[in-house]
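Hello,

I think I submitted the copper (II) ion job twice by accident. Can you confirm which output corresponds to this input? Input:
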Amino acid sequence: MSVSDKIAIFGMASVFSVTHALFAVAQEARAVTNPLAYMLQPITKSQGMLKTFEQSRETFPGEVLLDMNATYLDRQIYNPATARYDHVKLRGYQDARQTGLSGADTPLVGPTIDLRPGQTVRVTLHNLFPQDSTCGIGGGSANTPHCFNGTNLHSHGLWVNPSGNGDNVLISIRPGVSFQYEYNIAVEHPAGTFWYHPHLHGSTALQVSSGMSGALIIRGDRMPTPTETGDIDRLLKQPGGSDIAERVLVLQQIQYACTDNNGDITYDCQPGQVGGIESYDQFGPGSWPASGRFTSVNGQVLGQLALAEAGSVERWRMIHAGVRDTINFEIRRKTGTTAFRTLAAADTDRWIDQNCGKDTIPYGVVAQDGLTMAQVQMRQQAILQPGYRVDALVVLPGAGDYCIIDGAAPAAASVNQEAPSRRLLGIVTAVGGHAVNGEIGTYLQDWLISAAERTMSQNVAGKVIDDLKNEMSLSSFIPHPDIDAGEVTGEQQLVFNIDVKQPGATFFEVDGKPYDPNRIDRTLPLSGVDEWTLRSDFVSHPFHIHVNPFQIIKIVDAAGNDVSALGADDDGDPQYPGLKNVWKDTLWIKNPGTDPSARYTITVRTHYQRYIGEFVLHCHILDHEDQGMMQNIRITLPDGQGGTVSGHH
Ligand SMILES: [Cu+2]
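Support: Only one job matched these inputs. Its output is below.
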């Protein structure tokens, strides 16, 4: 045998053993389970509670403490392109009381904060990051990303006090400093799916895309009455009375990178290297598809979701906790058998064609941004932009495997302004139960009606059932009544823009100005009811405003058509039809390109209820926010003469 023959055979054997090794690693699909909940320590009588409260503990759950570390985490993230677990060191959240959970295989997702209306939660946030060497970046310019180890906390979507130690994102918690936030969840706060993440201007995108986010769930059990609405949680019960199965799906884009021999960023991390996110070089248009990374579900890439039962109704709480991609959430039957754990991003589209069925499994969307909608909407695809939440009732119609897919979308509908190829998010397997042979929408409707018969009080059951029979209306469960035109007391205009015309610099602007931390951009009256007109002159941006959600009135395209009605056609883009009258806190403001005349005009209404103080609105492509696409808002008392009180007089 010649030497070259020996090499050839040896080479073959190596290929075999490498393939075998890849296969062995690829089998270790980790289970995607719901994130663990933070341990809550109740404040007890011995800590000073009045005796009278103890007698009504059930109706007054009182105060709870929660201990949260913001710290570097040494973890692994699966890399489907290489079938290896990449070693990463990323900023993340950790329950300070759950010290056992620190292994490299602990999922990179913040624990869930689980609360009830009427509860006060005190969240002690410990900044355990090292001293900061990045505060000098930009020479003190507010809109150059900087101070990557400073942090704070935002309870996205909660209707709580924005000032002081409430949901205050205008404070900086420096390395080594602890601060206790206090969220008073009003007894009338809607139950639903919210989330938390850091929000310090200058480091928000870097920290959130490192995996610093988690679910924040408000659970309610208020029964609707003939005059007041209740919580949909009360309806979503199994025949035995327990809650239906629930999946919390925190969808993140953890865009870690390594450096190559020249010190440049590469997404091709070698064994022995440690991936991280330590600069803003890796953000920007197209950076996410270019990275080849996969959106993770509860910290796992291409994981196996917990088992489902065929024919059972589950509640899926989807949270877009990422920064740089649009997610078009689809469920399809898995029809092929090709291993999915070894899968380069570029091959995913073909893999889905070969291994996932053509037909999507429709599901019933019941809430947007945590707020129960007026009607269950059957969807083939839910579109989640950064910051969005979608609650869906999902039925897997038979035993077997299902592909969870981030589907294709029109370029104008996506963060990267390019039609991204599809990505696999994970696999869910249904076992046992029973097959559903007819329309899933009809099956779900029948299930909801029987749930209403079982769960609703006699004085509302008839109304709830009639509603459900009438196109699955949920009028007894919506947290906010419509805001009628006659209630509107003022108007606000807003225009997003990226100014690329100035020599040498790009400016990220709202209303023609980059963010100025020392400027109040809008002073608005407490109890005022405003109609806002939202536009973008340069590409699309997800608008988010803190504290008070808004109701969508109309979404008008450049040709003057309102595309927000259920069943409307927005040039094949499914994200707007069905949003008319829906309440949200984050909304895509579309401009298909860079020509201001192509922009959409979006009208929403909101009211400023209960809480005064200063907070922000901004673009939820968080690197845009860090670079200036943000405004300060002040809610203040009216002066009684049509204006607002300014200063201290
Ligand atoms: Cu933006």
